[in-house]
Amino acid sequence: MLQAVRPDALAARREEIRDTIPLGSTDRLAALVREVLTRCGGEAPGDWAGDWERRPLAVELDFDSRRVEGRQPVPAVTGKARVTLPLVCERCLGLMELALEADIAFLLPDADMTDEALPGFEVWQVEGRGVRLLDLVEEELLLALPLALMHEDRSRCRPVTEDYAADDAEAEPDTQRPFSALKALLREDEDQGE
């Protein structure tokens, strides 16, 4: 997983990889965790403040060859990746844990190929010495992150400030009456005109 491999050799053997990788062995995911924990000043959820680098990234990959129109069979990899990450809730700005799962489906050609080559598969161009499988896995997990990270259960969100502690349902709406000053002036004019 950490070294470059030749996908054509793995596909020829129909290799299956089931592995658990320490989160600290990743590049981009570990950088994301470090950034989140640094920004939160050590206020980590659960046991993230400890030895988070050993947290597991579970990977299941199956290699085979797929026939694509007008080409020889192309190496392909399918599978899943699972990891739990500490992230910042965009609603309350508090830390939260997010369990990510990503489906993996790549064609791994050594020549140019378009993404439309085989429906349901993305194309990852293999160059030179091969492909580092962990790069594929990290790419798909990062793409699986939601656009807006928030606690699923709003009651788990901590108040952004102490003044904001009231529940939205119980808070009185802040009604603005832009013409109330004009109404008061008109009343004064009516009172003076009499």
In a few lines, what is going on in this structure?
The protein is an alpha+beta fold and 194 residues long. 22% of the residues lie in helices and 27% in strands.
Describe the protein's topology:
Blueprint: E1 4-5, H1 7-12, E2 16-22, H2 28-39, E3 56-66, E4 74-88, E5 95-107, E6 122-123, E7 131-132, H3 133-143, H4 180-193
Parallel strand pairs: 5-6
Antiparallel strand pairs: 1-7, 2-3, 3-4, 4-5
Total separate domains: 1
Shape: elongated
Low-confidence stretches: none
How many strands, what sense, and barrel or not for the largest sheet? 5 strands, mixed
Helix count, per DSSP?
4
Number of strands: 7
Helix-strand topology string:
EHEHEEEEEHH
Helical/strand content category: alpha+beta
Distance between the termini: 90 Å
User: What do the pLDDT scores average to?
Assistant: 82
Strand content: 25-35%
Name the features.
194 residues; alpha+beta; two-stranded antiparallel sheet; 22% helix
What does this structure look like?
A hairpin with a 7-residue loop joins strand 3 (56-66) and strand 4 (74-88). 22% of the residues lie in helices and 27% in strands. The chain has 194 residues and is of the alpha+beta class. The chain is elongated. The chain is built from four helices and seven strands. The chain has helices spanning 7-12, 28-39, 133-143, 180-193, and strands at 4-5, 16-22, 56-66, 74-88, 95-107, 122-123, 131-132.
